[in-house]
Write a structure and sequence with these properties.
The complex is a heterodimer of chains A (111) and B (118).
Chain A (H helix, E strand, L loop, with lengths): L3 E4 L2 E5 L4 E7 L6 E6 L5 E7 L5 E4 L2 E6 L4 E6 L8 E8 L6 E3 L3 E6 L1
Parallel strand pairs in A: 2-11
Antiparallel strand pairs in A: 1-3, 3-8, 4-5, 4-9, 6-7, 7-8, 9-10, 9-11
Chain B lengths: L4 E3 L2 E4 L5 E6 L6 E7 L6 E7 L2 E4 L8 E4 L6 E5 L8 E8 L12 E2 L3 E5 L1
Parallel strand pairs in B: 2-11
Antiparallel strand pairs in B: 1-3, 3-8, 4-5, 4-9, 5-6, 7-8, 9-10, 9-11
The chains are: A mainly beta (111), B mainly beta (118).
Chain lengths: 111, 118
């Protein structure tokens, strides 16, 4: 059974600082997705990582995938308050197309 | 429509009642998914449709939960004899499937239906 673990689950950062969120998963998969969720809202797709070594960047966020280590990272550079949200990683597993989600990392960026 | 549409956005019901939640996926998306999200948790997979058929219903918690997609587009999630533990946000997502380059497996989510069972 595919399990997806994120850490940390809670992260309080100061503006301008850097930090990394980790996503580990338990069985082989070469598709990993990062989503953002604001309070009371649905999930917004951030990154789609489809192969070992894939790296995607958008603004202050960069995501990477190491399928051999079964690890993805979401790196935050020079955090700003607007990045405050919950970030989920999801891994393709089970039936074709089904995604298994981690518990999420709640990020709070303080001035 | 442009995005995944879910109705109702909020539903309050009493324990034991029957509930239906509706999802209208992105036009042209053949795959449709239902997830359930409890407060402070990640989305939990319930069921996945490819066209009209349920390709994987292994996430449905028990036989009180059922979902249909009779014409391969709109789907309805049905919950019988609701219990307080069914209270959650029910999320619907759709994706493009097929051999084209557009098939990244990325899911596009609706705003969700918040179900409260009193």
């Amino acid at each position: 059974e595919l399990k997806v673990e994120q850490n940390p689950l809670f992260l309080s950062m100061q503006e301008g600082k850097n930090y990394t969120i980790y996503c580990n998963y338990s069985t082989t998969s070469d598709r990993l997705y990062w989503y953002r969720q604001d309070p009371g809202k649905s999930l917004e797709s951030l990154f789609v990582l489809l192969s070992n070594g894939a790296v995607k960047q958008e603004g202050r966020l960069m995501a990477s995938l190491d399928t051999k280590a079964r690890l993805s990272t979401l790196h935050i550079t020079a955090a700003v308050h607007d990045l405050s949200a919950t970030y989920f990683c999801a891994v393709a597993g089970g039936s074709q197309g089904n995604l298994i989600f981690g518990k999420g990392t709640k990020l709070s960026v303080k001035p | 429509g442009a995005g995944v549409s879910q109705t109702p956005s909020n539903k309050v019901t009493e324990k034991g009642k029957y509930v239906e939640l509706r999802c209208d996926p992105i036009s042209g998306h053949t795959a449709l998914y239902w997830y359930r999200q409890s407060l402070g948790q990640g989305p939990e997979f319930l069921i996945y449709f490819q066209g009209t058929g349920a390709a994987d219903d292994s996430g449905l918690p028990n036989d009180r939960f059922f979902a249909v997609r009779p014409e391969g587009s709109v789907s309805t999630l049905k919950i019988q004899r609701t219990e307080r533990g069914d209270s959650a946000v029910y999320l619907c997502a759709s994706s493009h499937t097929g051999p084209s380059a557009a098939n990244t497996g990325e899911l596009f989510f609706g705003e969700g239906s918040r179900l409260t069972v009193l």
